[in-house]
Design brief:
Blueprint: E1 5-9, H1 13-25, E2 29-33, H2 39-46, E3 50-54, E4 56-57, E5 60-61, H3 62-71, E6 79-84, H4 89-94, E7 99-102, H5 107-114
Parallel strand pairs: 1-2, 1-3, 3-6, 6-7
Antiparallel strand pairs: 4-5
């Protein structure tokens, strides 16, 4: 069985390291993106099962990226889980996210959101 590929778009390097370790231990194939990456282009190139993305991504808006990804029909099957230290669940969900996790979140909550 092929491992599900997860893209991480997060600007906190400690968080990236922790999430990568956790998701690898759970059997996921993890690709961490640089905070300055063109996330929408990487989603198209990598064709992940899911994208875990921070709402505030360095100099980029996770919300704008989310909308850009959702506008492309090729990405309709990609699960997008948004994360933030502020409760932005309603806004994220209304813009097309499949889930939202308020930081700090428990590892089990992320695994459940991805399954």
């Amino acid at each position: 069985m092929q491992m599900a590929k997860i893209l991480l778009a997060e600007d906190d390097s400690t968080m990236v390291s922790l999430l990568k370790t956790l998701l690898n231990m759970e059997g996921f194939d993890v690709v961490a993106l640089d905070a300055a990456s063109d996330v929408a282009a990487e989603v198209e190139k990598e064709k992940p099962h899911a994208l875990v993305m921070d709402v505030h991504l360095g100099g980029q808006s996770g919300m704008n990226i989310l909308e850009s990804i959702r506008q492309n029909e090729k990405n309709s099957n990609v699960r997008i889980i948004m994360t933030s230290g502020m409760n932005m669940k309603d806004e994220c969900m209304s813009r097309g996210a499949d889930g939202f996790l308020l930081k700090p979140f428990m590892p089990d909550d992320l695994i459940k959101a991805l399954q």
